[in-house]
Amino acid sequence: MKRALSLLTAFAFSLGATLAKAEGELFIYNWTEYTPPDLVDKFEAETGIKVSVDTYDSNETLLAKLQAGATGYDLVVPSQNFVPIMINEGLIQKVAVYDLPNYANYEDKWKKPEWDSEHEYSAPWQWGTTSFSFHSEEYSGSGESLAEFFEPSEELRGRLSVFPTPDEVISLANIYLGIEFCSEDPKEMKRIQDMLVAQKDYVVAYNNETMSDLITSGEALMTNHWNGYSRLGRLAGAPVQYAYPKEGVVGWFDSLVVPTSAKNVENARKFMNFMMDPVNMAILTESQGYGDAIKGTAQYYSEELKTAPEVNPPSDLNVVFAPTCSPAAQSLIDKVWTKVLQ
Amino acid sequence: MTERDLKSSNMAKAKALPVGHYRGLGVWNFFFMVFLYAPIAVLIFYSFNANRMVINWTGFGVEWYIKAFNNEDIQDAVWNSLIVAFVATGVATTIATIGALILARGGNFKGKTASLGLMMLPLMVPEIVTAVAVLIFFATIGLNWGLGNVIIAHITFCIPFAFMPIRARLEGMDTTMEQAARDLYASEWETFRYITVPMLMPGIVAGAMLSFVISLDDFIITLMVGGAGSTTLPVYIYSMIRRGLTPEINAVSTLLLLFSVAIVTAYWFVSKKSNTKTVH
Amino acid sequence: MSKWLPKSAAARRWLGLTPAYVMIGIFMLVPISIMAVYSFLEPNPYGGVLPEPSVAAYVKLFLEYDLEDNLVFNPGYINIIFRSFQLSIMATVICLVMGFPVAYYITLQPENKRNIYIYLITIPFWTNLLIRTFAWIIILGRGGVIETPLLNLGIIDDSLKMMYTDGAIAIGLTYSYLPLMVLPIYASLEKLDFRLLEAASDLYSSRFQIMTKVVIPLCKPGIVAGCILVFIPCIGAFIAPNLLGGGKKLMLGSLVQFQFASARNWPFGSALSMLLLSAVVVALIFYARSARKKEYIQGTA
Predict the structure, then answer these.
(1) Which residue of A lies nearest to C148 if distances are taken between CA atoms?
(2) Domains of chain A: residue spans and CATH
């Protein structure tokens, strides 16, 4: 009985420990490989707040996890087109980002975005583009057109890697086929569906985490990629080259937002403020290689970053940011993707 | 008759192979063991790869072990795993012991088969179904205890694993000792405390070890049910595999493997001591 | 201590069983029941359910509204379900073919050797499933342990493309659950009376006949138990299809996970789970029937 009692005590104790989240904690839920450890260390050293980071692989996963009540996260990092959904669903809360001291550093160009025009919810993280990368030595093409990705040549049979979630893939397909984003026209969506189903014959894996490794091992010759992540792969020795197709690429803007169920809102705001300091944002940009929306970061960039091809697109590049789709358009997108994955 | 005897008699006269013996069984068994252990050997071997990519062998090194040891996220994950496994094992073993005592000693009663079925239910339901069902349940009632949610789910599926060896032990146990104690005017509680529990101990320890390993290994349920700060080691390893195949995964895996082997070996000796057959 | 306990045996019984009932009842039966209810509701487009009764989730298994909102037959999910059964049965059969001779071989060994073999077979089973599957990525992958020497020796001149295939999933599943096949077969072979074999031999049965007419029928319950223990986790597998199938070859388990973790269609995910559960129930009924037969055989023997 003593043993049983001591076990019960241990049980109660551990529950208590998890319930009474001590002050000075911050739970971040972010994309895989998107939170530089040295930045976290710096924040911990400056504030004494203990940060822990969990990771997800797509906006869809984040939304699903929040909807399923996976709570306790203080900061999450959705892309621009998912922010309005989360606001409507009551999943994130107003935290008066405009009121933070470092808000003054926000670049004017990015102020008043349509997804959060008053900056009540979101603080900037990174913005970048989605396109594809190819094996710089073994692939014969030059990545000048999205046709190489969507209507692959024979050498890509079984050696093409595509993102596993519809959001960016379908946006990219929209650009390629000249179809408006969030189309509610079934006929146009059918064209996208047919193209993606045909593309599947060439796909080796649906993946958005180890793209550069797939290229390095030769498992894939071409893969969906993000510009900054492609740069990281290249810096680690992968023979990847990021493509700037003439039709254009998908742009996205990821922001820090605070879930409604967050327990450490003040710490989350501290982190938001911390990130709007150009010194800190520059650390993030340096490690991730995307763009930032904070004034005065450029002076801290390394030469390598300033000249990296992934960060310096051709000046005439067509970058299209996806808006939030209506439920009708979203339903078509889901249907298309379900069909593709079957 | 040993294998060697068999072989020599084979050579002497093929017909002499005893009834029930078949040629090639030993070879088959050998290749079976190779199949079983080759992947583990490969895994351990590549944990000593100095290269960043697992499969490009460039030289021997233990730096991935050092890296794994210094990785704070891994430490947190190990800590979470241990808390969950200890609490789940403790509670599940207690529940299972009481349940087993009643089901094995309580005689026949209405609902016994159903109770037995209920005890074994978590074993029958595919893990993914348990995972999503519990996920829906927690989301519906809004239960949000972080690691507590994970612990509750683990207790539930650990119960049958703790239950099986305890029940097996009870069924093989002689009741004469207990009867003798009662005849000598030991109270019911004293009999239970000084006779039944010590005799049952090997079963309880075996059950606790089984559920400990099961809890420590669980991935899918924890992945679906866990919230912020409840990343356990398997969930962390999964996120490592998704990020790219580095020998650090092999290093962590090798360590976890050694730990599991140690527990199973201990379990093995405990269950050998008890003469009941608790082969799972 | 015992004074607090109720006097009546029945009351004690229920008191003692209550914790187990509560845990498994509340955290297993109730969730599964809620899931069953959810499978008959409308999905909320952004996750969760709307409280409107609907059989859409079950209809979706066979039919779908295409982009133009026409209801058409959709073989997609049927294919996934079919593939799940196919791969699970394949893995079960491979496990049986590989495992039976080993179980039999172990039975022929002296006792101390038997125990060592059983120990060796259980060890990999208790190591983490993720880790065991991960090992196969290193083995099967491009430039992996199998390919590299073959490429270097010039036996093959291109990748064998073993990863991200149904074959890779089948190997992963087989490896994951092999011990679950060997152990129950061994347990029933161990009880086999070898004098029966002698008797059969004396009656001029061939070795083959002894195996098929005596050994296999007598250890059939073990074989059935092994098959079921392998089949159930295979049909709901998530790790092997995900890691070895490249997310392109879905199985039921990964499809269920996908509905909750990304597609946000809870009713459909719930309906798929109910389908999985019914597959398990069918397997268990099959097992119960063969177990009853065994009792019958033993009763008459």
Answers:
(1) A217
(2) 23-127+252-307 (3.40.190.10), 128-250+313-341 (3.40.190.10)
CA distance C70 to chain B (A): 31
- Report yes or no on C2 lying in a domain: no
CB contact residues (below 8 A), chain A span 20-79, against chain C? 58, 60-61, 63-68
| Amino acid (one-letter) located at C194 | F
Residue A27 is classified by DSSP as E
C137 phi and psi angles, rounded to 5 deg:
-65, -40
Is residue B12 over pLDDT 70?
no
Residue C273 maps to which CATH number?
Answer: 1.10.3720.10
Distance CA A16, CA A10 (A): 10
| Beta carbons of C275 and C65 less than 8 angstroms apart | no
Measured CA to CA, the distance from residue C142 to residue C158 in angstroms comes to 10
CA C278, CA C252: separation in Å to the nearest integer? 13
Three-state SS for chain C is CCCCCCCCHHHHHHHHHHHHHHHHHHHHHHHHHHHHHHCCEEECCCCCEEEEECCHHHHCCCEEECCCCCEEECHHHHHHHHHHHHHHHHHHHHHHHHHHHHHHHHHHCCHHHHHHHHHHHHHHHCCCHHHHHHHHHHHHCCCCCCHHHHHHCCCCCCCCCCCCCHHHHHHHHHHHHHHHHHHHHHHHHHCCCCHHHHHHHHCCCCHHHHHHHHHHHHCHHHHHHHHHHHHHHHHCCCHHHHHHCCCCCCCHHHHHHHHHHCCCCHHHHHHHHHHHHHHHHHHHHHHHHHHHHHHHHHHHC
Same-domain status, B19 and B118: no
Report residue A59 as tokens. 């906006």
Q: Distance between CA atoms of C87 and B128, rounded to whole angstroms? A: 17
Q: Give the tens place of pLDDT for each residue, C31-42.
A: 999 999 999 999
Q: Cβ B136–C38 below 8 Å, yes or no?
A: yes
Q: For residues B115 and B52, state if they share a domain.
A: no
Residue type, A244: Y
Q: Which residues of C79-101 are buried (b: 16+ CB within 10 A; e: fewer)?
A: ebbebbbebbebbbebbbebbbb
Q: Which two tokens stand for residue A236?
A: 């680690």
Q: Would you state the structure tokens that stand for residue B212, as one six-digit string?
A: 């400990």
Name the region of A72 (left: φ>0; alpha: ψ -120 to 50; beta: rest): left
Report which residue type is found at A84: P
What CA–CA distance (Å, rounded) separates B164 from B278? 8
Tokens in use for B36? 């079983």
Contact B125 C28 (CB under 8 A): yes
Asked if the Cβ–Cβ distance from C262 to A60 is below 8 Å, we say yes
B244-256 burial, b at 16+ Cβ within 10 Å, e below that, comes to bbbbbbbbbbbbb
Domain limits for position B100: 72-273
Quick one: pLDDT band at residue B8, thresholds 50, 70, 90? very low
Contact B152, C54 (CB under 8 A): no
Q: Which two tokens stand for residue A246?
A: 């003439």
**A275 dihedral zone (left: phi>0; alpha: psi -120 to 50; beta):** alpha
On the question of pLDDT at B16 being above 70, the answer is no
Look at residue A98 and give its three-state secondary structure.
Answer: helix
The ipTM estimated for the assembled molecules is: 0.87
Whether residue C20 and residue B119 make contact (CB cut-off 8 A), yes or no, is yes
Of the candidates A250, A219, A235, which has an alpha carbon nearest to the alpha carbon of residue A135? A219
Q: Which two tokens stand for residue A316?
A: 């005439």
pTM: 0.85
User: Which domain range does residue C101 map to?
Assistant: 75-300
Residues of chain A with pLDDT below 70 are: 1-23, 70-71
DSSP state of A257: B
Measured between beta carbons, which residues in chain C are less than 8 angstroms from residue A65? 261
- Does some domain include residue B268? yes
Q: Is A201 helix (H, G, I), strand (E, B) or coil?
A: coil
- Would you give the DSSP letter of residue A259? B
User: Domain for residue B197, yes or no?
Assistant: yes
Domain co-membership, B53 together with B85 = no
